[in-house]
Design the sequence.
């Protein structure tokens, strides 16, 4: 199912451009446009659903397995010391895009934690360079 008004459905279909990190049959991963940290990536199911609790067991399993795969690659290639997985459901929980998604937020030892968008990249060139590092080419 696709929602014609949903930004993430449009990203999955290619109607809105994105910096793709990984894609498989069921899921799509791309760099967050307003990152909390360098390498901040989102993973979404290709079919539209609003909340985590709207997903079938099969879709949720595919989504978390793909999130694990992308996170493992980011951990190795950024590299980073750890990462947060963040997942918001509902406006009251700060969900701004009503298409279920996992955030992967790289973290480093001895660096503070930012829980909001920051100017994470020093330049456009740095963002492009980090994109090349974390993109999974299979
Ligand atoms: P949430 O607050 O959990 O709904 O997170 C939505 C995320 O989507 C935010 O971190 C936004 O920066 C991100 N976002 C919104 N529009 C785009 C876009 N066109 N491309 C990439 N990321 C986006
Ligand atoms: Zn959608």
Sequence:
């Amino acid at each position: 199912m696709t929602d014609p008004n949903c930004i993430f459905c449009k990203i999955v279909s290619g109607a809105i451009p994105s910096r793709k990190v990984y894609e498989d049959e069921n899921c799509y991963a791309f760099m967050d446009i307003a990152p909390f940290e360098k390498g901040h990536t989102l993973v979404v199911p290709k079919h539209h659903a609003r909340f985590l609790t709207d997903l079938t067991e099969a879709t949720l399993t595919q989504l978390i397995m793909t999130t694990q795969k992308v996170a493992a690659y980011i951990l190795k290639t950024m590299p980073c010391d750890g990462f947060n997985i963040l997942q918001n459901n509902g406006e009251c929980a700060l969900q701004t895009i009503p298409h279920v998604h996992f955030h992967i937020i790289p973290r480093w030892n001895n660096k503070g934690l930012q829980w909001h968008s920051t100017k994470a990249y020093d330049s456009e060139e740095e963002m492009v360079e980090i994109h090349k590092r974390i993109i999974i080419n299979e």
